[in-house]
Each structure stands twice: as C-alpha cells, then as structure tokens.
Design brief:
single chain, mainly alpha, 4 helices
Length: 120
C-alpha cells in the first residue's frame, strides 16, 4: 500500500457508490484503480507513467472516463461532503501560489486612466 492510497474508512464510504457491472473478463480491483486515478490526479503524471501496482494504465484511464460520464465522481464528492462538511471549507484559490513575477505588469506598458476625473 502506497503512502496516499485509500484507507479502509475512506474505501467504505466510496465503494458502494461505484458501479459494479462485471462483464465477461474479471475486472481489475476498483480500489486499486481508484488509487491509480488519485495517483495521476495528485502527481499530474501522464497516464502512461502510472506505476504497475495500480494496474494497466489504459484500464485506469478508461474507468476514470467512464465513471466521469456516469456521474460517479459527483456522487462521491457529495457523499464525502455530507460525511464531513467542514472538510470542504479549505477549497479556495488563496492556496495557489503565483509565480514570483506574476504581480509585475508587462515591461514597457503604460497604464493610463481611460476616464479623466473631475477635480474640485
């Protein structure tokens, strides 16, 4: 089990929300696939760089897309928010760091007011 893999408590909340329609071939374990999806989302790695412990990258990618189209992610987020409403309070753009030069304007650009203010 990797450092950020789902705990048993987290899995017990999410597992009932996942679709389970086994077809002909045996499926790769949903928990394993979900951990792989979270790995990709957390690291920003390409799908092809997914470690082998999470299963085939094509399976993980396809299941991510299929679950997105089926609305599974919305149900998961709603269930987690209901379970712990205070955990959603930290989602804010203030945690995103800006580049050190982001505050500077373009060099050579002069900002002039487009409306002249009436003086006293």
């Amino acid at each position: 089990m990797a450092r950020f893999d789902l705990s048993d408590a987290e899995w017990s909340i999410i597992a009932p929300l996942l679709p389970g329609k086994p077809r002909g071939a045996p499926r790769v374990d949903d928990r394993r696939v979900l951990n792989g999806i979270f790995y990709i989302l957390r690291t920003g790695s390409p799908w092809r760089d997914l470690p082998e412990r999470y299963g085939p990258h094509t399976t993980v990618y396809n299941r991510f897309n299929r679950w997105a189209k089926a609305g599974v992610w919305v149900r998961v987020f709603q269930a987690l928010a209901e379970r712990s409403p205070q955990s959603m309070a930290f989602i804010d753009s203030s945690i995103i760091r800006a580049h050190q030069h982001a505050a500077d304007g373009k060099k050579g650009v002069r900002i002039t007011p487009s409306v002249s203010l009436a003086g006293d």
